[in-house]
Design a protein that fits this description.
It contains 14 helices and six strands. The chain is an alpha+beta fold and 329 residues long. Strands 1, 2, 3, 4, 5 and 6 form a six-stranded mixed sheet that branches. A hairpin with a 2-residue loop joins strand 1 and strand 2. The longest helix is centred in the last third of the chain and has 19 residues. The radius of gyration is 24 Å and the shape is elongated.
Length: 329
């Protein structure tokens, strides 16, 4: 695969985690890149590495700090597992990320793909890291339908010398050329691609059946009383564990009310529409306040919110700034 090797060295994108083959940086980047685009990840990665530059700093970090650095990337279990994994590495491997793939998979949150990525990109082992990009490329290049064979067959394409270059080149191909709609005319290995030769490049890889999306609609009630706002305390478990939100679907008396923009967001298999109302009650006797806490705008800036409620918080800040500029507050 010398053609692919040479193409990558000439055309690879300048990404911050590629500047040095550091296993910690590789681990953080690969976890961030799961289900998230490169352009979104870059500023998160750079901010994370500035705040938590190594295993020991991550292992010692409060969970709240880790989640705040992750805020906006979604799938917060990934961030929680990074913290668990760092603690595990400090306790079991003296703070050194192991090079052995089997040992890597004993670390919380590190599965088959991430272990392969660390082993090959940071330690130069001959293992193909098969993400969605590589799956697309290898399925087309070899006209391969059986997904269970992707890693095995991709690994066979790696050279003995510097196998990580071709391993990463396959990722780069899937991300930039062999995309969902492939740019076959720009492909450096077009003449060897079986899918192209068989005119199957739009058929492969075979589609995977997705779980049905559940649509939810919620009314969000933002209660302002004496310049503080009511928040629902975070859940200890579940998709929204450790994340703050405004109350939803609660009854409130007639009072001054302001509509904020509707927000839509998706997570796992849910698509949620949030309709927020900002209210200014004269008293809070109508509230059952167990499970809730009061925070000022400044205090809320240090909390980690779920994606939709974070956007609502941003709209709330803008609304209050406008009121202040108009001399209303």
């Amino acid at each position: 695969m010398k053609v692919l090797n040479d193409w990558f060295l000439k055309h690879k994108r300048d990404l911050p985690w590629r500047k040095k083959r550091d296993p910690y940086a590789t681990w953080i980047a690969e976890v961030m890149l799961q289900q998230t685009g490169v352009l979104v990840v870059i500023p998160y990665f750079e901010r994370w590495m500035k705040a938590l530059p190594d295993i020991h700093s991550l292992a010692a970090a409060p969970k709240e700090t880790v989640l705040k650095l992750w805020e906006g990337l979604g799938y917060y279990s990934r961030a929680r597992n990074l913290l668990k994994g760092a603690i595990y590495i400090v306790e079991n491997f003296q703070g050194n990320i192991p090079s052995d793939r089997d040992l890597l998979q004993t670390i919380p949150g590190i599965g088959p793909y991430t272990s392969a990525a660390i082993a090959t990109f940071s330690f130069g082992q001959k293992i193909a890291a098969v993400d969605a990009n590589v799956a697309r490329f290898i399925s087309r290049f070899l006209a391969l339908e059986d997904k269970s064979l992707f890693e095995q067959e991709a690994t066979k394409l790696l050279p003995d010398k510097d196998p990580w270059i071709v391993a990463e080149a396959m990722i780069e191909m899937g991300a930039t050329i062999c995309r969902k709609k492939p740019d076959c005319l720009a492909c450096p290995v077009q003449k060897s691609c079986l899918a192209f030769l068989q005119n199957r490049q739009y058929e492969l890889p075979l589609p995977t059946k997705r779980a049905a999306t559940t649509y939810l609609e919620k009314t969000v009630i933002i209660i302002c009383f004496k310049d503080h706002f009511l928040l629902k305390n975070p859940e200890e478990k579940g998709v929204m564990a450790d994340l703050w939100e405004f109350p939803t679907d609660i009854a409130y008396p007639e009072c001054i009310r302001h509509n904020l923009p509707i927000q839509k967001h998706s997570f796992t298999r849910y698509s949620v529409t949030l309709t927020p109302y900002l209210i200014f009650p004269e008293n809070i006797n109508f509230l059952e306040q167990r499970g809730f806490s009061w925070y000022s705008i400044e205090q809320m800036k240090n909390l980690t919110f779920s994606a939709g409620h974070k956007r609502i918080l941003n709209e709330l800040e803008n609304y209050l700034k406008n009121r202040l500029s108009q001399g209303i507050l």
